[in-house]
Amino acid sequence: MIRSGRKYLESLRDGREVWLDGERVKDVTSHPAFRNTAASIAHLYDLAHDSEYRTTLTTPDGVHRAYAIPRSREDLVARREAYKVWAETSYGFLGRTPDYMAGGAAGFAAAPELFDTDTFAGSGNAVAYHRRLAENDLYCAFTITNPHSGTGDDDLVVRVVQERDGGIVVSGAKSIGTGAVFADEVIVGTIEPLAPGDVDHALCFSIPVDTPGLSFVSRRSYEAGARGTFDNPLSSRFDENDSLIVCEDVFVPWERVLTYRNVEATGAMWWRTPAYVNFVHQAATRFWTKLEFLTGVAILLTRMNGTDGLPAVTQSVGRLLGMVAQAKAFVLAAEASCEPVNGGAGGVMPGTEISYAQRIMAAELYPRALQEIKQLAGGSIIQLPASAEDLLHPELGPVVRKYLRAPGTPAEGRIKLLKLAWDALGSEFAARHEQYERFYHGAPHVYLTMQNWAGGAENCERLARACLDGYDLGRTR
Known about the structure:
The protein is α+β, with helices and mostly antiparallel strands. It is built from 17 helices and twelve strands. The longest helix has about 30 residues, at about 275-305.
């Protein structure tokens, strides 16, 4: 079932406990800190529910393509085309849209046997989790990062405080719940390595966002601080938010538990199923789209400024277009190097080596792209009217229109483009995105180390060794 945007918004009015600025938010669909982003996500559902993109976004079975377990490279391409439609809607600035965790759930269902351990039989729950999300077209957020205080207190992290016949009771917190305030469910787990004997924190489960005892403490809302769409065209509509997720004696039924008291399975569910590389497939498609958008902004700026014909500027734009091509190439290469899951029984997944390498590329490339565009924009993005009200004012408007126009571009068009550029490059919203892309797939010391596990080192060593073995001291010329 593909639900409409209206049905999605109705689902958010469930009494969920969201806190912002010391006050509880009664309705995220109407609150000025969340309503526009909620509407943007609702628009994604409408595209799949009833639009010209429906066949691209959904399977013949009537579910979003992100939930489908790919059986071939062609299936991966079809899934990426669906990712691309949604990514272009927000110009790549909504990162954890519903298709993100949908791909993760499909990854679990492709290799459910991993969830059966000597402490808990979770394979049936993993398959049911995937089915529940797909059949009801649900938005599941995830939070798998532990809060850090440096105190060593283990009561900060989500843990089981009581076991009952019908389930478990958990308390503790998880951080960086991106998009969680807009979701139907939230999956709570850990992707960070646990100590071998740390079974108390070795669990993963997914529960409805309105579960009693579950609360969300939002960071500062950039949407709330936006002056309007003209002044803040991105932050006013695409602030997916991040929140601290707090569990206070939350009851989790057994059927909602995926792993329990097993350190290996709690970490491996992300890495030894297709879940993580499915995440990267969606994220890489979105990143490619985001670079396309940013490069487009750069091109428009140079044309408006009349600098597009200068050799240094054309080289800079060429460098940006090269970055776009790199981002695109990683997506296509991951699909082309797809690997069978469980010998093909679980379908295929994007190539691990390329998927892992994409994390390195994206984290390092994004700040460079921003710096390139900032150089092209110059100081023009700093000296801007405070808001659209200056243009609309009967006395001030003519002054602003006179002095802030550019050759061939009226003041309104020039200011509109520059405000878009500032929101993408220099605002607090933009700063969050730069930091977000740097750590989107974890810290560098994690993903750089993991690249060694992805393979490829043997071939590099073999080629160097072949050269060394091809000559000796007797061949000096």
